Amino acid sequence: MNYLADTEYQTYGLEPDTPESWVSAASSLINAHCHRPTLWFSEFTERIRLVPGRNVLRLTYLPLAIPSGGTTPLVEGRARYGVPRRGDDLTMWEMASEYAMTFGLPGTWVDLTVADFDFFEATGEISWLPNPLGMYFDEMELTYNAGFNTIPDPIKFACVQLVRNAQAMPAVNVREGTLNAMHFAYFADTLLDSTVQTMLAPFVAQKVA
Q1: Identity of the highest mean pLDDT range in 52-56, 134-138, 192-196
Q2: Distance (Å, rounded) from C-alpha 29 to C-alpha 185?
Q3: What residue segments make up the domains of the chain, in order of their start?
Q4: Whole-angstrom distance, CA of residue 81 vs CA of residue 59
């Protein structure tokens, strides 16, 4: 979906007769630069390896978004138990290890009650209560909502600037309405100048290892 509607062209400094295909191509370049399928409100599924003993992770696509009438951006989740590791408390480690082996938990995927998870929309940080027996997850898969219902101005201005940059280049200055993202992709390094990159910097997905 385009980041600029035809009714907004003049408001953001674009000629009203600009072919929609140019804006579509610019929107696709924005997605590619931001390493995400879309900046619009959408549902994502992400599987993340966890640090042993930690009950926190950071999701990639931001900002997290709560749907209308909801209370959390998280839709559903599951996690895989890791093998208990010897820590400072040997009694607890032996208890957790025995419990895990008895019930065959290591490597098992279990469904999660994500409504109980804590979250921070701006950073994508997710946390949950630790297991009372010291068991931990080594991998988690979460489905969640993220993105914008209303596209911020910097993204719209970046879209306009990409179109202007393309129009200023004779090699891509075509007005036939058949232009698509592949034509623009060849010139991505030139079209995505420092101005556009600065506008889009806050929206680039950063995967935290």
Answers
A1: 192-196
A2: 7
A3: 6-38+151-203, 42-146
A4: 19
Instruction: Please name the helix (run of DSSP H) or strand (run of DSSP E) that holds residue 31, with its range, or none.
Output: helix 20-33
pLDDT digits (tens, 9 = 90+) for 85-140: 555 444 454 555 555 555 446 668 989 999 999 999 999 999 999 876 667 788 99
Gyration radius from the chain CA atoms: 23
pLDDT at 64: 98
Q: Which two tokens stand for residue 142?
A: 């979460």
Helices and strands: H and E segment counts in the chain: 6, 7
Contact 62, 205 (CB under 8 A): yes
> E strands of 59-160, at which residues?
74-81, 109-111, 118-120, 125-127, 137-146
**Range list of β-strands (E), the chain:** 42-49, 56-58, 74-81, 109-111, 118-120, 125-127, 137-146
Are 123 and 129 contacting, i.e. CB atoms less than 8 angstroms apart?
Answer: no
Supply 101's token pair.
Answer: 């082996």
Phi and psi (nearest 5°) for 114? -70, -15
Cα 45 from Cα 98, distance rounded (Å): 33
Say how far apart CA 11 and CA 172 lie, in whole Å: 24
d(CA 50, CA 47) in angstroms, rounded, equals 10
User: What pTM was computed for the model?
Assistant: 0.82
Strand 137-146, strand 42-49: pairing = antiparallel
